[in-house]
Structures are given as structure tokens and as C-alpha cells.
Write a structure and sequence with these properties.
By secondary structure, the protein is mainly β. It is built from one helix and 18 strands. Strand 17 and strand 18 form a beta hairpin.
Length: 370
């Protein structure tokens, strides 16, 4: 009996080792902030992560897997040194295929986002369900953010909220999250329409509730020219006040060149004074999407296969006064040295309305995967 048990365990371990996927990534990011006036600020961040994906079933009409990822972060600046741990991925997934579609259910901690990728775009603990066909795509999500590490996730909340701090892990802002999305791909003339509704209920000492509804339409204007239009309405109440409406809108046009690997984009984004996201997302200049009008461009070109170049520019105005705040310029160069080695250098310059407030940022990144 003992021999049979040992043989069974060895067989399971052998099957696990050959079917499971393992990997890791090491990232190094060196940053410099150079103000027009004042001292230069610097920081060094090193992330070491490891992940595994264990398949349980790989049939033609059904598959399932379990995936987990852990991250250790070491960060040093001229003021402090911190060590942090994170689990950005703990996910159990089951997917059943039928005809031209599938149903997928996931549970655990994983990345999720609204259709704008601007209101809520981060990890969260919860359950999601996805139904996808050629005609309609639908998804539902319910989750909780209070067990995340706030050193890795940034969210808007009460300014006086006190985080539960630890040596490696600080609990994040606690929101109950509920969301649903419906998309109609290729609704007409290859145009796609998406609608979603998201609600965020503050728990514990977070005295706010946020409701968002968004619509997005995207598609081709011609073979090489594409557009995206997004509109989001927010209803937010803070400190037991009545719900205050806000608006976010954006439009973007992308042109893809046919003979070279290059794309040029132009965009405009607008957020009213009472609009506020849940995940802290910012303009190119690093300003929150609140009382902001931003217009800019970006261009990406791949002159040779392992090298890509990108330039960006963005002008920012304050909506309620229409005061000019400044213009952000940025450039980025990526070099895929090997299939698992990436080197990146980027720089930003913010030309503020008040020249003395202008800043320069320089970043050097190296990524090794294995």
C-alpha cells in the first residue's frame, strides 16, 4: 500500500512539473527628477517577480488553470529605503467553449478594468464572468479592494484615511466593486459599441460612493485610419452629501502607415471639476483627471525590428478657468536586446506656465525575463 501511495505521489508530481509553467521577471528602474529650482531627486526601484500557471484541464471544449504571481520590491531614494511584498495574481479560471463563443469564470485576485481603462484599472479580489460570441460580449464583476497592498495600487479616497501599515504590506482603501459591461463588436460597418456600469461602495472609514456609466464606440474610418470616442458620467457622494454628477469625454484618431511599422495618434480628453476616478490615473503631465482639458499627440516608429522609438506631447488647461497649465513633452527608446532582455530610456519635460515650476524627468529601465 505504501509503495502504491508513493508511486501515485511521484506520478502526480511528475505530471505537475511537466504541465505547469514557471517564470520570473527582474526589473530595474532608475529615475531622476530635475526641477528648474531646487535639488535633484532620485530613486531606484528593483522588482523581482516569480509566477506559475498550473493547467487542470486542456480539452477542446473546456479548460481550467490556476495561476499565481509574487513580487518583491526594493526601493531606495535619498530620503528612505523600503521593502515591499505583493501578490498581484491569484487566479482560478474555468472556460467552456461552444460553437462560435465561450463562457469564462474567474475567481481570486487579478487585473480588471472598465471600458475606458481610466476609471478603474487595477488588481482586485473578486469573481468575474464573461460570455463572448461573434455577436455580443458580456461580462460581470464583483470584488473588494481592501486586502490589496497600497504600495502597488493607488486609489482616491478620504484624505484623512489611515492605512494599516506593516513592514512589507500596507492594506489599501476598502471598496466593494460591482461592474457590468456589454459590447457589440462589428455592430455596423465594422464599428464596435460598448456600454458599462460600475459602482464602488466605500466601507469602514471610506465615506464615499461612486457610480459610473460609460459608452465607447470605435472602428475604422478607412483601411489605415481608426477612431475611438468615449463618454463617462460619474455620480459621487462624499461624507454623506448628495450625489454630484461629473463628466469625462475623450476622442482619439490613429493612423497606421502601410509601408513602415509606425502609428501616429492625436487625442483630446476632458474631465469636469466634479469628475474623479477610483484608480489614480493621470494625464501625460501627471495631473489627475479632474477639472482638466488635455490635447496631445503620440507617434511610434520601429525603424528596425528590435528597436522602437516614441515621442509624445500634451498641452493641459484647467477647465473652470481655462487657464493654461503647461505642456508636457516626452520621448522613449526601447531596445529588445534579446528575446528576454529589454532596455528602455525615457525622458519627460514639463514646460509649466510659470517657468520656475518646469521639471525634467529621466528614467532608465532594464527588464530580464526567464
Amino acid at each position: 500500500m505504501k509503495k502504491i501511495l508513493i508511486a501515485t505521489i511521484c506520478l502526480l508530481c511528475n505530471s505537475f512539473c511537466f504541465s505547469a509553467e514557471f517564470g520570473g521577471i527582474i526589473k530595474s528602474n532608475t529615475e531622476l527628477l530635475i526641477p528648474t529650482q531646487g535639488d535633484i531627486l532620485w530613486g531606484e526601484t528593483i522588482d523581482a517577480s516569480a509566477y506559475t500557471k498550473i493547467p487542470f484541464s486542456t480539452k477542446d471544449d473546456f479548460n481550467s488553470y490556476f495561476a499565481v504571481e509574487g513580487v518583491y520590491r526594493f526601493r531606495i531614494t535619498q530620503n528612505e529605503t523600503t521593502n515591499s511584498l505583493n501578490l498581484p495574481l491569484i487566479k482560478l479560471n474555468m472556460t467552456s467553449y461552444f460553437g462560435n463563443g465561450f463562457v469564462s469564470v474567474s475567481a481570486g485576485r487579478f487585473f480588471t478594468s472598465d471600458i475606458t481603462s481610466n476609471i478603474f484599472a487595477q488588481e482586485s479580489d473578486g469573481v468575474s464572468g464573461i460570455y463572448m460570441t461573434d455577436v455580443v460580449n458580456a461580462s460581470m464583476y464583483a470584488g473588494y479592494t481592501g486586502l490589496l497592498n497600497s504600495r502597488f495600487v493607488s486609489m482616491h479616497g478620504n484624505s484623512d484615511y489611515e492605512f494599516e501599515s506593516g513592514n512589507f504590506y500596507d492594506l489599501s482603501l476598502p471598496y466593494i466593486v460591482i461592474g457590468g459591461t456589454v459590447s457589440l463588436p462589428y455592430l455596423f460597418l465594422k464599428q464596435s459599441l460598448s456600454l458599462d456600469v460600475w459602482g464602488f461602495i466605500g466601507t469602514q472609514n471610506i465615506n464615499r460612493n461612486n457610480i459610473y456609466t460609460s459608452a465607447s464606440i470605435t472602428g475604422p474610418i478607412s483601411n489605415q485610419l481608426f477612431y475611438t470616442l468615449i463618454a463617462s458620467g460619474s455620480f459621487i457622494n462624499k461624507e454623506e452629501q448628495s450625489f454630484t454628477p461629473g463628466l469625462f469625454a475623450s476622442g482619439e484618431i490613429d493612423y497606421y502607415f502601410s509601408k513602415i511599422s509606425s502609428v501616429v495618434s492625436a487625442y483630446a480628453k476632458y474631465a469636469t471639476k466634479d469628475f474623479e476616478t477610483v484608480t489614480i490615473t493621470t494625464t501625460l503631465a501627471g495631473l489627475n483627471w479632474n477639472n482638466i482639458l488635455a490635447a496631445g499627440f503620440s507617434s511610434t516608429i520601429i525603424p528596425v525590428n528590435p528597436l522602437s522609438l516614441k515621442v509624445l506631447g500634451e498641452a493641459v488647461l484647467q477647465v473652470d478657468t481655462m487657464d493654461y497649465l503647461g505642456t508636457q513633452f516626452a520621448a522613449e527608446c526601447r531596445w529588445q536586446v534579446l528575446s528576454d532582455v529589454l532596455f528602455q530610456v525615457s525622458g519627460k519635460y514639463f514646460l509649466a506656465k510659470e517657468i520656475d515650476s518646469s521639471t525634467t524627468n529621466v528614467s532608465v529601465k532594464a527588464i530580464i525575463s526567464f
